[in-house]
Amino acid sequence: MDPLRAQAILEAGMSQRILVVGDVMLDQFIWGQVTRISPEAPVPVLDFQDERYMPGGAANVARNLTAWNTDTVICSWIGRDVAGDHLIEQLKQCQVGCGGVLRSASRMTALKTRIVALRQQMVRVDRERREPITTRQTEQLLKRVERHLTSKVSAVILCDYGKGVVTQELLDSLTVMCRQRGIWLSMDPKPVKPLHLKGLSLMTPNRKELFALARRPEVPGTVDPLKDRALHEVIAQLMTEAAPAMMLVTLGERGMLLCQRGQEPFHIPTMAREVYDVSGAGDTAIAAFTLAISGGA
Asked: Is 283 an annotated catalytic residue?
């Protein structure tokens, strides 16, 4: 794409508002140095050096959008707890609108703690509960969503990480809301709790999720995604069953495949890098693609 055209699309997308709905979480990173083994058990002892909190899950998608100066509002449920306080603080620092965030003492803000030493993640501790929100909580969240679905909103991103916020009722209602208003609806689905997907504008599963959504066992792929017969069969199945306007399949170091009805898949290559603190490539992909669509791509 011509650089001037890309810049125009980005600037046009930045003038829009994007609504992010779904499972939010708080990422905590703890850095330290390991110089000895504990006498209590054969495990390393970490000498603490630093820690940092970052928005995770749907909140990371929102953070990606505001990094491109996009007007972004997030809608979700979190707990009335310390992790929730940290998350709200982080979102505000990133200029993410929090008017759609609801809090309840019955919910627990998901917290993922990563211990890092020698540029390598040693362990991750997850503190979360995964029960779905109640019907009443779904209704309250939908009211917040509807309140923010103004004429300025060009797209909605629905992020399902299996933490309980995204229910079938929420998905169905949100799909209808967006269709009635002509608003683009992107979704990163998770097969951990299968939902009936129909009528989305964009789906962004990775390869493993794609096979799970198609109810098929994953088989090894080829180096060239365009020659991956099993992958293309599953894509064709889901393009028929779920009928999204587009599907962006993320393939790690092999890049991405962009699929549209009636067209051959388009391969988007990438340059693989070794990382020790994962920033959420899938989150960035759905944010960037939705922003581009909002800008007229």
From this structure: yes
Residue 123 included in any domain: no
- pLDDT tens-place string over residues 71-110: 999 999 999 999 999 999 999 999 999 999 999 999 999 9
* Cβ proximity of 211 and 217 under 8 Å: yes
Q: Which residues, 6+ apart, have CB-to-CB distance to 161 below 8 Å?
A: 22, 23, 25, 57, 58, 190
Structure token digits, residue 290: 């939705």
Could you list the residue range(s) of the whole structural domain that residue 13 is in?
3-25+56-113+134-294
- Residue 32 falls within a domain, yes or no? no
Q: What is the pLDDT of residues 203-243, one digit of tens each?
A: 999 999 999 999 999 988 888 888 889 999 999 999 999 99
* CA–CA gap between residue 146 and residue 156 (Å, rounded): 11
Question: Is 43 within the bounds of a domain?
Answer: no
3-class DSSP assignment, residue 100: strand
Alpha helices in the chain (DSSP H): 3-14, 58-67, 82-93, 135-148, 168-181, 207-213, 229-241, 281-294
153: domain CATH number is: 3.40.1190.20
Q: Which of 27, 160, 228, 283 is catalytic?
A: 283
pTM exceeds 0.70 for this model: yes
Tell me how crowded residue 198 is: count the other CB atoms within 10 A of its CB.
12
